[in-house]
Design brief:
Length: about 425
């Protein structure tokens, strides 16, 4: 039996790295006063068609979609933002002036698997809802940067752009159509279709012949209205105040339809072809797309968890992350009553330390097992200890042994 293409097991020999990264995420999220939200993996497909857009690659080519027994079309969520917006509307929480949220979770996209690109992958997302100010845009960017910094990841590149408001987008789309029109005969079928239905998505095409043409399209940043220009300049000056290096990249339009104004991606060259570690931006129009009566400002981003792990490995940052070791191994000689050793084991665990035993057996065999498992201490309960109501502690780092009265040992453990 094989795992499903594009999925990966997390095996016990590296799950501690994942737990460590998650703990850093929790710590950074707390410092930004972001509260965790967990939404279901299973959603109605229509949610993403509406939110992300039917012409995007994610919706048109990459969703794992199926009908349930009642004929409803469901999918495995390809991203987290749409589900968060749905949950805020459904729960009524959108009425809060501001919701500052984060999530960690599995997302699914039927992409061609390669390094850093999976079909089941995990994102760490941030969504700040209800805050119009560019300070919220900066908070979202800074969350990603602080997380990378805390993990020791340097030399990333923040690429930033503005996709304007619906008004300036209109004039840009006209310019774009004007430019692309004479080239359409040399472009792929999808581009020709998208030219009619959603011309901005032509810019996402990966085909070589189309990329050449796309590389010299007019840029959206030159079509921004005065408000959007000021807004973008404010974001840039806040980045400078925060001493964040950035590159204005007019080609960043993101692959999802819901964005307006600030859009950004963070790239790292050690990731190879899939160099984007995080991406996000503002999506002020998304709530009203679900319910025209609800207008909420919103901005967010998501960072790819597996890409973070690749960077930690490639930059040799995992060697400082330690897995927990076995504190005690309990050796019980054959034929003795195990009641007392069980009491000791229970109290050691209560004190938050680890202890295991494989039950009564030859002492020499159990000592070998303890050594193989890397136990720091061994507790020996043999015939002599049973007779004298004692327990022997062996320090595996130097082989020294001490014998204690069980009651004394227990009261010492209970004080820890
Ligand atoms: P996205 O750019 O589609 O944005 O994904 C964010 C990040 O998820 C990417 O930069 C990448 O690190 C990771 N990622 C995406 N696809 C894969 C894959 N197939 N395998 C491994 N990692 C992947 C979003 O999903 C938006 N919802 C972000 C957002 C939140 N915008 C506003 N709020």
């Amino acid at each position: 039996m094989n795992s499903v293409k594009g999925t990966k097991d997390v095996l016990p020999n590296n799950s501690y790295i994942i737990k460590y990264v998650e703990s850093v995420v929790d710590e950074v999220a707390k410092s930004f006063y972001l509260k965790e939200i967990r939404t279901p993996i299973l959603e109605y497909s229509s949610l993403f068609k509406r939110a992300i857009g039917s012409d995007t690659d994610v919706v048109s080519k990459e969703m794992f979609e199926f009908d349930d027994r009642a004929g409803r079309t469901l999918c495995l969520r390809p991203e987290g933002t749409a589900g968060v917006v749905r949950a805020l509307i459904e729960s009524g929480l959108y009425r809060n002036k501001i919701n500052r949220l984060f999530y960690k979770g599995a997302m699914f996209r039927a992409e061609k698997p390669q390094k850093g690109r999976l079909r089941e992958f995990h994102q760490i997302g941030v969504e700040i809802v209800g805050d119009e100010s560019v300070y919220a845009d900066i908070d979202v960017i800074m969350f990603n940067i602080m997380l990378l910094d805390k993990l020791g990841i340097r030399d990333y590149e923040l690429r930033i752009n503005s996709v304007g408001c619906p008004e300036c987008r209109k004039s840009y789309l006209l310019k774009l159509k004007e430019y692309l029109s004479p080239h359409l005969v040399h472009m792929c079928d999808t581009c020709n279709k998208r030219f009619e239905t959603n011309v901005l998505r032509v810019l996402d095409c990966k085909e070589e012949k189309c990329r050449k043409i796309i590389s010299s399209v007019p840029t959206i940043i030159d079509s921004l209205c005065n408000n959007c220009k000021t807004n973008f300049n404010n974001v840039i000056s806040l980045l400078e105040i925060n001493k964040v290096n950035y590159k204005i990249d007019p080609m960043i339009v993101r692959g999802l339809d819901y964005y307006n104004n600030t859009v950004f991606e963070i790239h790292h060259s050690s990731l190879g072809a899939q160099s984007a570690i995080a991406g996000g931006g503002r999506y002020d129009g998304l709530f009203s797309q679900f319910d025209p009566k609800i207008n909420k400002f919103a901005v967010g981003s998501a960072i790819g968890f597996e890409r973070l792990l690749i960077l930690l490995e490639e930059l040799e940052l995992t060697k400082n992350i330690k897995d927990y070791s076995l504190d005690y191994y309990l050796v019980i000689q054959e034929g003795v009553n195990p009641e007392k050793p069980f009491e000791i084991m229970k109290n050691i665990r209560k004190a938050g330390m680890s202890i295991i035993t494989s039950g009564p057996d030859r002492i020499s065999k159990q000592l070998k097992d303890a050594d193989k498992l890397g136990a720091r201490f061994v507790l020996i309960f043999g015939e002599d200890e049973s007779k004298n109501n004692t327990i022997t502690l062996k320090d595996m780092s130097n082989g020294r042994q001490f014998t204690y009265l069980i009651d004394e040992f227990l009261s010492y453990i209970m004080r820890i």
